[in-house]
Design brief:
This protein is α/β, with parallel strands linked by helices. Helices cover 47% and strands 15% of the residues. It has one domain (7-187, 227-253): NAD(P)-binding Rossmann-like Domain (Rossmann fold), CATH 3.40.50.720. It has eight helices and seven strands. Bound molecules: nicotinamide-adenine-dinucleotide.
Length: 260
């Protein structure tokens, strides 16, 4: 077993926001589990962290499959002795016009972005209680959880669900000293937007590459879209002792797009 500040599992960490979170957690001295459905990319991300001097392993999980989540927690405990942090970050979007949104679209998105987060919270909570760990559960919400967008209503509902689940889990786990918080990015330049851009063009909602991000970003008070590095500081804080008296909250990191 390697000496670390404890294990932190990051779901959806093979790329994008999750990968940046994992890299920072490793730099902060946590042992990291890259938990992603894309096994090859997850392995590459873990290798890069190890090459940079951090502690990382990778684990193929599907956040909607409870057994794979349990297995990732077992691998974390075996590698690092304890599960200290669970970052429920995996998620996706598939836009459809509101009036034509299908049951299948709703089910697929709510399954990964909603149920996947519930399972992550439950299994991490149970493992932390069993080990007596005053751990941290942190989930990736979105500005879309605080407002509606007609072309991706199920995604908005799924991110509102992340905020509600955060509050429910925070109340349930507070007596055990486990805190549960979320953070809500705005527009982050990752591969998620590559797919979204293509889907919105196919839908006829936009007519040229890059238009979707450009239109979404117009009027961001801080004047630019974000990159994964813009959100990791908040996650560092949520993992750190500085946030010990905070639970059930969702911190927006969206350049000021949604102010509530
Ligand atoms: N990019 C943005 O603008 C933005 C804004 C707000 C919130 N978010 C949220 O941030 C999170 C990360 O987004 P990103 O932009 O880094 O996306 P991304 O598409 O670059 O990365 C998502 C990762 O999740 C993994 N994944 C997908 N389904 C999975 C499953 N069922 N089980 C395990 N892993 C799975 C993918 O393989 C991928 O590695 C998502 O929850 C997303 O909704 C993104």
């Amino acid at each position: 077993m390697t000496q670390t500040k404890g294990g932190v599992i990051v779901t959806g960490a093979a790329r994008g926001i999750g990968r940046a979170i994992a890299e920072h957690a490793a730099r902060d001295g946590y042992g990291v589990v890259i938990a992603d459905i894309d096994e090859a990319a997850g392995g590459t991300a873990a290798d890069a962290i190890t090459a940079a001097g951090g502690q990382a392993i990778s684990c193929r999980i599907d956040v909607t499959d409870r057994e794979t989540v349990k297995a990732a927690i077992g691998a974390c405990e075996e590698a690092y002795g304890v599960l200290y942090g669970m970052i429920n970050n995996a998620g996706f979007n598939k836009p459809m016009p509101f009036l034509e949104t299908t049951e299948d679209n709703w089910t697929a998105i709510l399954r990964v972005n909603g149920l996947g987060v519930l399972i992550g919270m439950q299994e991490a909570g149970k493992a932390m209680i069993a080990a007596g760990t005053r751990g941290r559960i942190i989930s990736t919400a979105s500005m879309a959880g605080r407002t509606g967008f007609g072309d991706f209503a199920p995604y908005c509902a799924s991110k509102a669900a992340v905020i509600s689940l955060t509050q429910a889990a925070a109340k349930t786990l507070a007596p055990h000293g486990i805190t549960v918080n979320a953070f809500g990015p705005g527009v982050v330049d990752t591969e998620l937007w590559v797919t979204l851009d293509q889907d919105l063009m196919e839908m006829g909602a936009t007519s040229r590459p890059g238009q979707a991000m450009q239109e979404f970003s117009a009027g961001i008070p801080l004047g630019r879209v974000s990159v994964p590095e813009d959100v990791v500081g908040t996650v560092d804080f949520l993992l750190s002792p500085a946030s010990a008296y905070m639970t059930g909250q969702c911190l927006m990191i969206d350049g000021g797009m949604i102010m509530q």
